[in-house]
Write a structure and sequence with these properties.
Number of strands: 8
Strand order of the largest sheet: 3-4-2-5-1-6-7-8
Largest sheet: 8 strands, mixed
Strand content: 15-25%
Structural class: alpha/beta
Oligomer: single chain
Distance between the termini: 9 Å
Order of helices and strands: EHEHHHHEEHEHEHEHEH
Number of helices: 10
Length: 253
Amino acid sequence: MMGHIMTYISDYHSVGKTTLTFHTVWRLHEKGYRILVIDFDGQGITFSFMCGLDTGRLKEKVKEKQSLYHVFIGDCKVQDAIISVTERLDVLSFGMNLSYMQPMASIEQFQQLIDEIKDQYDYIFIDVNSSPDWRYALTLSVADNAIIPVDCSKQANVSDCMGILNLIDSIREQFHSQVQILGFVANFVDDNELQSYENFKRRMAMHRYTVFDIYVPVSDVIYTFTDGDVAIKQKQSVYALFDKLIEQLAIIK
């Protein structure tokens, strides 16, 4: 079975794309699924989260010219750039900050690259960088589903989300008709923003967009690690929260 490709994507900074990716991936991994995370951030953030903040292996890969960057410029094959984090969990990272660079791969090239590896995994999650650029187009050109994280204190109406919605529509029309928006997830909500969250849900429903019936409280987004290991201690509420999100996403194979 080929990998189901998903991304949390937004044109806003600091709405929790990487945090949501991390928790969703980890809960699916604990359920026994084979997962690849493509770290398009360019700073190794997701990779660092999953490897206990130890970037030594990533740096070694870069030194050996084995990263997604090196795949794009033809220095290595994609299989050589994949790093095994633990059993059934791999990462394919940029390995360096490329935010200043011009597009390094065409949509067709990236689609072909993904086709080479997706049947090895149940899920592929793509963690995008902070600002929309050519990596957003590549991500959406292969994704089956996009989930849009929002900060309800900044994004109160559908008009505040039109940038990313228009980009998804453009990619769907030109390159990848199968990409679908699963819905919105409100992230980093505190007690003072519950009314904003409810208002956002109501307004988005008027435009027939799904807002998942959960929000991620600030106090519950907690992750700690043991050095060099993937030992994760989370509040029990986080486990329940992401189990509920995964259930609502209806992506379990």
